Amino acid sequence: VHGTKQVYQNPWIAVTEHPVTRPDGQPGLYGVVNFANLAMAILPVFDDGTIMMVGQHRFPQDRYSWEIPEGGGPLSEDPLASARRELKEETGLTAGNWQEILRMDLSNSVTDEAAIGYLATGLAQGEAEPEGTEDLQTRRISFRAALEDVSSGAISDALTVAMLLRAYYMAVEGELDPALAKAMLGR
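The chain above was modelled as a monomer; its predicted structure follows.
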């Protein structure tokens, strides 16, 4: 690495360029998108095995997307506090129980964006408080139906896919409360 130059910045991201010598000895250039926030994903699971999904138009792909509640939290903030806020903002839900179930890098070839995911249970419904940039819909569906949507490609959001598959694994492998796992799996 022969240097670092920031070429763009806004409140959410910065782009830096790094002139390098590649492994083959030739000159190269890496561009990295740096994120100001930690990505949050929350899988809210009701006692009956249903989950809450959030629908919204995603500007970068210019299409509508059904996802679990997601958002970002400042890197300086407690991740659980960020997750609690995102769940309330997007769905109106509050949760009595929180369990971290996932940490992942979202696109480690070009970004430093990291994510953390929580399973939220003991849910109570309140009023949603979406941000001014959000036009959201919510729907409550069975966990199995969400898995089928992942399998068919109807759900393609990376965090939603990862969280649903992680929760499925936990349910099958006995890492969740047996009654909750049974409800989620429809058994």
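The helical segments are 79-91, 143-152, 158-172, 178-185.
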